Structures are given as structure tokens and as C-alpha cells.
Amino acid sequence: MTMSAKDTNASTHQPIWLQEYIDSPERQIQLYKKTLRILILSQIFGGAGLGAGITVGALLAQDMLGTENAAGIPTALFTLGSAGAALLIGRSSQRFGRRAGLAGGFLAGGLGALGVIIAALTSSIPLLFISLFIYGAGTASNLQARYAGTDLATDKQRATAASMAMVSTTLGAVVGPNLVNRMGDFADSIGVPTLAGPFILSAAAFIIAGLFILILLRPDPLVVSTAIANAKKKGDSVQTGTNLKATINKKGVVVGALIMILTQFVMAAIMTMTPIHMGHHGHGLGEVGLVIGFHIAAMYLPSPLTGILVDKLGRIAMAVASGATLLTSGLVAAFAPVGSMPLLTLALVLLGLGWNFGLISGTALIIDSTHPSVRAKTQGSVDVLFALSGAAGGGVSGMVVAHSSFAALSLSGAILSLVLIPVVVWSRKNPSKEL
After folding, report:
1. What is the pLDDT of residues 198-210, one digit of tens each?
2. Does pTM top 0.90 for this prediction?
């Protein structure tokens, strides 16, 4: 669209609609609240798309390949697809805005889910693997949506804003798996393999989430926040021009990323092997589902309270709390009697809670340490490492248990969580100046 002189502020060379947001704190607050509402709605659908597909992904691969050795393939493909998509979403968001990046990720995830359905209908293994990889883009959008809510948040609102997107994902993630049987019955009624049924829900949910973002997320919060930050910098600084080094607190980014990566690695390692450990000691699927259900609830449901604590007490304080909680979780899991459901449930609840503390405090640190002009790209790069650390944790955990025991794995996780302490100490030494 060609912009006329009437559409541009001559003194600032900004579009008039954008200058209105720069000049009006009230409009900024209104857009911040509107952005959160849209993200919450889209995340409910995105969580449903993610939860429904992951629930039966391993079973579908096992059924099509005819071997239990394929059970881990879907998770690996989801993770790799999510990591690659995180990088693409971050870069496209930086260039074109959050709307393009997040909507593109959700819509790609929906296309991946449709590909899984076609693969099941045609018994095509290559198409199944490719589609599962693309399906991971929906996971990446689900995760990166937490950043979009913070674009227009103040320094004291950022962790709270990130937490709102996370907790709304939980609502969909709980509903999705509970519809697995119904979607299987529906698939049967239209001639689709039963295990592909949940991917019908995944496709619809991801596409709806993408359309919500694409249609409703206007004006784009990242575009507006970048313009506001640039205008403020011109007014407050006597420096002329701004290079990349002036817009990133590198130490803050490294500390935030390390907090997220360590907590993700420890959580994924212990969580992955818990069902197998329980199965080896006589616990049934119902008991396994109960423990993992409490764990997932602890990962997401406390997010609003965690966000408030991170904003009130500080990022570093909650990072220390994350390490202490993960340490306690590992010790309880290691020394709990194998038949004790209450203690094992407590260990997994603490594991989810420690992960929650680490993710939100690390996210807030990364946001604090970046200027909007480079923020989305940096966030995407960090989320790649975050996704890969989860895959590494899950992969290493199997080898540790195979050569030792679940108790040894839990103790290793407890000890590794202590690495957060020197990371925090290092972050306090010669802290970089604000941006």
C-alpha cells in the first residue's frame, strides 16, 4: 500500500497511526491489554492442538511401523521441528512483526497435522516423519507467544505478561488429550484410522489459533514497542546512531538462556524416565497418568503467581528458587521408596514448579536485556537451545538409567540444578549497564 503525505508525520517520518501510540501511554496500555486477550484465546486453541497430537503420536508411529522401537521418533521430530521453527519464527517476527511469525508457526503446525492424517490414510512413513517435523512449528509458536505478551509491558509487568500466555496454554493442553477417544470415534466414522483422529483436532486448533493471530493481532505489538523504544532513545540519549552492541546486554541474555536451558534439561531428564521407573515397580497406567498430570499442572498452572513473584522479588531471586526447588525434587525422587505414590508425586510436582520458576525468570531476563529492534531474533535463537536441551535431557536420561538407576538420574539432576548458583553469582559480578 502506498502511503500518502497525509498518512505520515512529517517531523518524525512515522505513520500517523504509529505516532499516536508513541505519544499516548493510554493507547499503549489499551493495546497491551488487547494483545494479552488475543494471545490467551489463541493459546487455548494452540494448547489443544499440541496436547491432542502428542498424546497419540508415539502410538501412531508404533502402529504404522509395527515396532515399539519407533515410540521415541515422534517426540524427537516434534523437538527438532520446534527448534528449527523457533529460529524461523524469531527472525520473521523481527522482520515482519509478531503477527506474521506466530501465525505462520501455528498455520504450519496445522498443515503438519493434516499431513499426519494423510500419511495415516496412505500408510506413508516418509510423509509421516516430514509431517511430524512440520507439526513441531505449532509447539514453537505456543512457546514464543509468551514473548509477544511482553512487548508492551512495563519492566514490572513482563514476567506477569509472559505467565498469562503460559497458563492459558494449559487450558487447551488439558482439554485436548481428554478428547482423544471422541476424536478417534469421529475418525472411524469418516474412514480415517483411529489414532489419526486426534490430529484432526490438532489441525483445526492450530489453524484457528493462527487465524486469530493473523486477523486480530493488529496493530502488531512488536512494531509498536520498537517504535516507542526508538523514540525514547532518541529523546533520552545524546548518542547518534545505535549499533547492535548498544541494544543487547549480553550477560543478561547469557544468564537468562542458561537458566532456561538448565531447568529444561533437568526437568526433561527426570520426567522422561518417571513413567518407565513406575512401570518397572508395578504402577499401572492410571497411576502414571496421575503423577504426570500433577507434574504438568505444576509446570503451567502456577504461572500467574510466578510471574508476580518474578516481577516483585526479582529475576535472580526466583532463579535461585528454581535451583533450590529442582534440587529438592531430585533428592525426593532419588530417596523416595519405589512404592510411595505420594512422595513420587511430590517429586514430580516440585520438578514442574522448579521448571516454571526457571522458565519465567529466564524469559524476563532475556526481555530485560534486549532492545525491541533485536529482541524477537534473540528470543528465537534462545528457544532453539531451549528445545534442544529438552531433547538432550530426554536422550541422556535413558542411557543413565540403563547403565545405573532412576535414583542415580535423579541425584544427577539435583546436582546439576546447583549449577544455577554459580550462574547467578557470576551475573552479580560487574553487572552490565542497562541496555
Report:
1. 899 999 999 999 9
2. no
Alpha carbon separation from 397 to 13, 35, 271, 299, 390 (Å, rounded): 55, 39, 9, 19, 11
pLDDT at res. 92: 94
Q: How many C-alpha atoms does 347 have within 13 Å on its Cβ side?
A: 26
Q: Which residues have CB under 8 Å from 408's CB, separation 6+?
A: 334, 400, 401
Q: Between the CA of residue 400 and those of 3, 274, 275, 405, 415, what are the distances in Å?
A: 61, 13, 15, 7, 14
Does residue 219 have a cis peptide bond before it, meaning omega lies within 30 degrees of 0? yes
Pick the closest to residue 203 from 138, 293, 274 (CA basis). Answer: 138
Rounded-to-10 torsion of CA 422, 423, 426, 427? -140
Any alpha helices (H) in 217-249, and if so which ranges?
221-236
Cα 211 from chain centroid (whole Å): 19
Q: Dig out the grid coordinates for 411 from the structure.
A: 541425584
Find where cell 489453524 sits.
Answer: 207
Residue 343 has pLDDT above 50, yes or no: yes
Q: How does pLDDT run across 265-307, given as a tens digit for each residue?
A: 999 888 878 877 777 777 776 777 678 778 878 888 899 999 9
Highest mean pLDDT among 65-74, 224-233, 321-330, 372-381: 321-330
Domains and CATH numbers, the chain: 5-236 (1.20.1250.20), 244-428 (1.20.1250.20)
The set of cell numbers assigned to 69 is 522401537
